[in-house]
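# step 3/5: fold
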Amino acid sequence: MIASISGLAHSIVTSLRSRVVVSVVFTVLFASLVTFAITRMRWKGQSLVLGLFMVGLMIPVHSTLIPLFSLFLKLHLTDHPLSVILSYIAFNMPITIMILLGFYYALPREVEEAAVMDGCSVNRIFFQIVLPMTASVIATTAIINMIYDWNEFIFVNTFISADHFKTLTVGVQNFIGQYTTDWGAIGATLMISILPILIAFLILSNRIVEGIAAGSVKG
């Protein structure tokens, strides 16, 4: 039993780790770009775009499973990690943008205005000035996204059937049979899945509080 738990956990954690890293990096990057465009630029449809992202917070995950499965089936992305990564990015973008908005509104514009006077391009302002200034809130959103992606069950269970692509939460089902359930193996597997997130939270908990508090007040 120990060997089976170890083998399952190792294979799943390896694929899950890369999937979580890719999802978190792209979610935070895209959300930062969107938030920068909304808070620092003036363009037609700005409020509409922000409203569309906020509407995404009200869409239940379960209502999108059939349309997403049909779409991924046509694109030949079922049973492929990309289907899960795209779903994670799409559903985590609204909450990530909402957390970033308060922080971006509170950022002083004087630093960016000085950079413009010195001839900095928009790309340099974003990557070399704004991103370093928002490091604390970026860490907060990254941790929140990592916790969600690590523990997510519905998308993986719907879009993925190959064992080597499944996550730990879905892999627990392998220990549930028709007539018997190996509760010891389930408990051990769940402990393995909890440890990385627990360690990350304990180490970076101050960052979470700091980032949320920093973006909670405008002005």
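# step 4/5: annotate
The two ends are 57 Å apart (CA to CA).
# step 5/5: archive (pending)
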